[in-house]
């Protein structure tokens, strides 16, 4: 009789354990599936070079950015931000803006870097390197090309009326705590520098940011307008670039189009 009771207890315990194990396995499967089905998109690599025509260390970084831009035309978003804090030494960079120096300071605060410097290259808003470091830059590009993006941006109805460019956008993926950065970018420009550290040199700058506007998207679809600044010539090749960034300035999505 005692053996029968003990056997019944063992059988009942085995059934309870099996049921628990099955339930736990289902919960883990659901959890794993939720991770697997998290939406990701094609990788984006955004390079933001902080540079100046008044900085003697910057031309090699400008050349490298142009080289990378051409080699990775469909994979890399190369941007050149010209800062104004070198203007005091005798040459006023025509593309420089104090807003770009502030943008650089915001990055360096996030990076816990003590000060701005040129040429500084920020990659996807996540880290920075010296902009003229060729080997390190190519290694970083290779690494970031393997990382899926959190967002995808669609760009449509781009219209150039001579005064500016209007556009419509659609964002895929989470919009929580994110902002859209709309940029007008000149393909390239050569400048004869007459004073300062680069005096008597002709400098070529590529993908120069000449206008920028922040948009707080409340919905996945929206519209925007960027006006052309006076420095933009009518027949110059230019691009419209949209970047999505989170509260820590990390780039989560990007798209670009030629402005005709």
From TrEMBL:
Cross-referenced SUPFAM superfamilies: Thioredoxin-like
InterPro entries: DUF1223 (IPR010634), Thioredoxin-like_sf (IPR036249)
Name of a matching Pfam family: DUF1223
Signal peptide: 1-18
Keywords: Signal
Keyword Signal: yes
Protein name: DUF1223 domain-containing protein
Organism of derivation: Ulvibacterium marinum
Lineage: Bacteria, Pseudomonadati, Bacteroidota, Flavobacteriia, Flavobacteriales
